Amino acid sequence: MIDETVAEIRAMQTHSSSVAAVKATEALADLIDREYSSLEEFERDLEHNAGVLRRSDTSHAALHNAVRDVERAVVGEADSIPEAKHRLEAAIDDAVEAVRTGKRRAAEHAAATIADGETLLTHDYSSTVLEAIENATAEGAHLSAYVTEARPRYLGRKSARELSANPRVDTTMVVDSAMGHALRQCDRVLLGMTCITDGTYYNRIGTFPLVTTAAELGVPVTVVGSSAKLIESFHFENDFRDSVEVSREPMADVTIENPAYDATPVEAVDRVITDEGDVPVDSLTTS
Length: 287
Known about the structure:
The protein folds into two domains: about 1-105, translation initiation factor eif-2b, domain 1 (Four Helix Bundle (Hemerythrin (Met), subunit A)); about 115-285, Rossmann fold.
């Protein structure tokens, strides 16, 4: 299960960073059924596999935090293999519940800020954003939503399909380059987050031009996500994906770059909402 989970995360088959964190953490349960000759061997195996899972995507702060918390709850804390396995099982449950609770509460807080009749724009695919919109409409709001299709992987199409299934959301999808056109129709932008660290807001590629265009047009930007994604001194590494996602035809003498994430100065956004409520943007800057 661990190898399969690593492969899935590296291939970005899991589109939500919260879901990736849960899957990575739950994969460590594989170790409970393995046989070990000593407690030291068990702890070494846990440390090794925790490291492999963290390295499967060095952009996901929630994954990094969840797996690290499990490792810290077990290594050096038990006197026997059965006790260590019991601690591992409990730590996995605690970490998964923390991720899910953080995501749910962040969505609830964000939903409370969405007014009936608002027109929103969102980018790519954020399960927390979608849950916030679902919560708002469940309370009676009728909304309009623009979704950028998020090339080259078109994850915005997945968001658009999910939003369009909600009878209280009028959904429009636009190509990424039409963001300026769409923003003129919008009250605000609602985005998820991969993480915020060292004064930088990391999210899927296309976020930076969207945020800067919104600022130019006076459209406020709200970012929503679990507080586990706010992390100090996290070494974020971008993922440069296969060029075939951009062009299936070879192009002579052309280098194709396909970064997965954008880096946006956090002070460029207007509001950050987590499971703990509003977080002052000034508190997230490095200055």
